[in-house]
Amino acid sequence: MMKKEDVAGNEIIKREKYTKYEKARIIGARALQIAMGAPVLIDTDKTDPIEIAIEEFKKGVIPITVRRRRW
Amino acid sequence: MYLKVRAVDVVRVPPERFGEDIVSTVKELLEEKLEGRLDKKVGMFIAILDVISIGEGRILIGDAGIYYETVFDTLVYRPKLQEITEGEVVEVVEFGAFIEIGPLDGLLHISQITDEYISYDEKGGRLVGKESGKSLTAGERVRARIVAISLNEKEPSDSKIGLTMRQPGLGTYKWLEEERAKKQQEELK
Amino acid sequence: MEEMNVSDHRDSQASEELKDLADFAVTDVDFEVEDLLEFVGEEEALDIIRMRYIHEDGEVKTSDIEERLLRSNLPERLRRILKRKLRAVREKLTRDALERIVRRAEAEYEEAKVEPNEAVGIVAAQSIGEPGTQMSLPGDERILIVERGVMRSERIGDFVDACISKYGAVVEGEAEICHVNENFFVLSLDNDGKLKWKNVKYVIRHEFDGELLRLRTKSGREITATPYHSFVTKKGGRIFPIAGSMLKPGERIPVVRRLPPLAVDCDCAISPSPETSPEASKRCVERERKVEHASTAYMLGRMFAENEYAFSFLNDDLLNGSDDFIKEFLRGFFAAVPLTGHPASDEADGEGCGDAVVNVRFHDRRVRDDFALLLARFGIFTLKSESAGDHLLLIPLSSFAAVFSGDCGCDSDEEDVVWDEIESIDFRRTSDRVYDISVDGLETFTTHDGIITHNTMRTFHYAGVGALYVTMGLPRIMEIMDARKKPSTPTMSIKLRGEYARSREKAEEIAAEIEETRIKDVARIEISLDEKCVFVVFKSEKLAELRIQREDIEAKIQKMDVNMEKIGEDILRIYPKEESYYELLRLEGRISEMLIKGIEGIKRVLVRKDKDGEYTLFTEGSALKKVMRIEGVDPTRTTTSNIIEIADVLGIEAARNAIIEEIISTLEDQNLDVDPRHISLIADAMTMDGEVKQIGRHGLAGEKASVLSRAAFEVTVEHLLEAALRGERDELLGITENVIVGQPIRLGTGAVELVSKIPMSRENTDRPPEIADTKEGKDKKTGN
């Protein structure tokens, strides 16, 4: 696993495993975006924003990532 | 004084605009957000000139929008003390005249127009000098100096900018023209 | 309750009998029998009269009486009365008789005293913890009740239900508690091993869903009770309560050997209420009349033996009959029943077992149990067993024969109970009502079968630590978390090493060594205002028991810078250096509190066998450092409930473990299940600085970095004011602060920082936006 760091030395997560909290936040945030009118990035029959977000997450197309700071 | 300023601000991009081109969206949102806004330090935003860079977007809990930290060039009007400014008289009232200096109006108090006694001619809507007979009416262009600034960010039109013309070289264009002509005549003599 | 309980033995019949005997035996006795009776009761009086003629061991001097009385533990007032009475009969007294009279008076006095810790009552027990109320008998267990002088056996359920429907009940939690206004008496065991009829104070009933415990003893007696219902057991010469669930086969519980003088006493002792008295006295009279005919009794006995089916149970009159009547009845009975004696079997050990047994066969269990009760009147302890559907009663011949040889005088030193071994224990589920009865004293009562049980409403025992009172439940948890310097009831559990752990004697040696003994424990301290001195009167039995030499005490007193004078074997006279009343009082206090043995702070020590069969000491009071140094104590497993003390002696890690252990065991006692991780977190937080800190505003909570979370804990305004004065900042890093402010906390999903990948549209995925030089751009900022 390659670790990439930004200027401040914070690790930027890319295509790694997310923690359950991160996963929940990503899907939750994305579902909210979709619910509020953001364009959906996949072709789907689903109507529930959460389900759409989950599907997007599975396909890896959600344009959201996580910044892990060093506290 | 008008300035071109490079500024940083955070813009919220609402979810319905996610599909659009980010740079133009951000610029548009910045215009929407900032133009006409008055900031005590920066001054009044006149126009967003160019988006220089867009940082990473933050997503907050309970908010569908994305917050971008954006660097951009903007044109601002920033009044400065002792600055010589030119403008047009927009209104003449009993206690003085309002001068439009850029996006803001400044007040030229009756006591700050000339060194002589000035009286208000209600019918003519003008201020007249007692001895010289110099007058000031709406529509005239003037040159004045800013002597007091009190900006109101929330209500930019309530901002108070104090002006003065009691100084050689200041006054309406007409007075200055006369002055110059007078000087030239004296020199010729 | 300072007055001696002199109202015993007012049985007019007995008194009559005694007078007759006295007249017959010693016609020239001219002192008043009543005088003696008033103090000592019939048996003693009898003995005294007899002894007068048996031993002539010299004249008793007035000084002897005084000396003896001074040695007694009677209060001043009683001593004076007794002195006067004894002086009046001095010429007739023997030394032996004097000794016995004083002893008896002492015993009576002790009995009449209110026990320490008494009168805590139901409310207190309720507040200690919920399990404290769940100790009861199922409704169909029979108990012995005396009402208006008549003894009967009744189902506890019927009895309590009747009381509750008659008097109503107060509901306390799940239990219904009924205060009984009437004079019912149950047979109760006191901690001197004597049985007494005691007034029922409360009856309690509540629902119970769980397993009942059924005990069977070697003598064939049975009892069913909730496992929380405690029994009394005898360890190290002391009687103390034990939880039913702690009992194991092989341990001994008391069963009735002899019924104390019948309940007639009670009616006379406690004046019955006006409306009940005529009726009661009428019954008494009726019974008296019936009982007169010895021949009737004899016939009844024969009838009973020949035609057992005629009796479904023995009737009240018989059960309550006079000794003579019953004797005649039994004579008649045994005349008809063939006495099939056989040698005592090996299993029938224990007291009351003689060389051979008489075997009596019954068809009905109740009749057998009643019959056993009759025999108990004479102190005949019977064994019960079952065989081929019949119920057998085995009567040891020796005690049996003693009764029928006409001698019914019993040795008063003997206990009224037999310590019967538990043979088997099994469980039975129930979800029915259970019942309980509360009386004064040890709170014991007796079932029909003669097993004595104990109602632990009063003393709450700590995991079987006998009668040690230990703080439990919420108060204890608070105590731990507050990191008190000293818990309200410090206790120690002292494990022993090697042979000390295996032998009771050895364990008791250590117990005696560490138990705090002050002079007042082994001697009586008296101030004489006339002579301006303090008397120390040693109690020789106590000294012997605790193996303390008189010389040691004397030496210690002499070091005190006083004038000591020995006046007799057991009496010291001590003068203070300065002759003033204040000095005198001070001297008395100093002497009585002087430690002569043991470890300061260890107020009581109990020796118990733990689950692994190891003798363990439980103490009231704590002194870990000193106890650990005692030879035979295993310092690695000895612990105290005082956490601060553990931290001082063993260090902070030990204190951390102690906190965890103590909290878990306290919670377990309340049947609460808390994940140990929570507890270890608390313990870690309390001990992380190297000293035990309380959780509270003076400890952990007060040391928090955040102003807001400190203010949120206690005394909000003070904290905010202080913080404002000092100009403190709150960085809102903690949980509490963010909750207060209404922000998401930085934990779990709240700790995740989401970042959008910049190009938001599908079209722009490949084309990154033109990023200009941002370094310059940052020097001017918009004020947003």
Describe this protein's structure.
The complex is a heterotrimer of chains A (71), B (189) and C (784). Chain A has 71 residues and is an alpha+beta fold. Chain A has one domain (3-68): Eukaryotic RPB6 RNA polymerase subunit. Chain A has 2 helices and 3 strands; from the N terminus they run E-E-H-H-E. Chain A has helices spanning 20-35, 49-59; strands spanning 4-5, 11-12, 64-68. Chain A has a 3-stranded antiparallel beta sheet. In chain A, helix 1 (20-35) crosses helix 2 (49-59). The longest helix of chain A is centred in the middle third of the chain and has 16 residues, at 20-35. By secondary structure, chain B is an alpha+beta fold. A 5-stranded mixed barrel of chain B has the order 5-6-7-12-11. A 4-stranded antiparallel beta sheet of chain B has the order 1-4-3-2. Chain B has 2 helices and 13 strands. Helices cover 15% and strands 49% of the residues of chain B. In chain B, strand 6 and strand 7 (104-109) form a beta hairpin. Chain B folds into 2 domains: 2-77, RNA polymerase Rpb7-like, N-terminal domain (Dna Ligase, domain 1); 84-188, OB fold (Dihydrolipoamide Acetyltransferase, E2P) (Beta Barrel), CATH 2.40.50. Chain B is elongated, with a radius of gyration of 23 Å. Chain C has 784 residues and is α+β, with helices and mostly antiparallel strands. In chain C, the strands form 6 sheets. In chain C, strands 1, 2, 3, 4, 5, 6, 7, 8, 11 and 16 form a 10-stranded antiparallel beta sheet that branches. In chain C, helix 3 (62-71) runs antiparallel to helix 4 (76-88). The N and C termini of chain C lie far apart (85 Å). Classes of the chains: A alpha+beta (71), B alpha+beta (189), C alpha+beta (784). The B-C interface holds B 5-10, 13, 18-23, 34, 39-42, 52-59, 61, 66, 71-72 and C 744, 750, 753-756, 758-764, 769-774, 776-784.
> Roughly how much helix do the residues of chain B carry, as a percent range?
10-25%
> Can you count the beta strands of chain A?
3
Number of domains of chain B: 2
| The CATH homologous superfamily of chain A | RNA polymerase subunit, RPB6/omega
Mean pLDDT of chain B, nearest integer? 90
What shape does the CA trace of chain A take? Answer: elongated
At the first level of CATH, the class of the largest domain in chain B is Mainly Beta
Instruction: Specify the number of helices of chain B.
Output: 2
Show unreliable segments of chain A. Answer: none
CATH superfamily of the largest domain in chain B: Nucleic acid-binding proteins
Radius of gyration of chain A: 14 Å
Largest sheet of chain A: 3 strands, antiparallel
The structural class of chain B is: alpha+beta
- Counting copies of identical and different chains, the oligomeric state is heterotrimer
In DSSP terms (H or I, runs of 4 or more residues), the helix count of chain A works out at 2
CATH architecture of chain A: Alpha-Beta Complex
Distance between the termini of chain B: 39 Å
Order of helices and strands of chain A: EEHHE
The total beta strand count of chain B reads 13
Q: Strand order, biggest sheet of chain B? A: 5-6-7-12-11
Roughly what fraction of the amino acids of chain A lie in strands?
5-15%
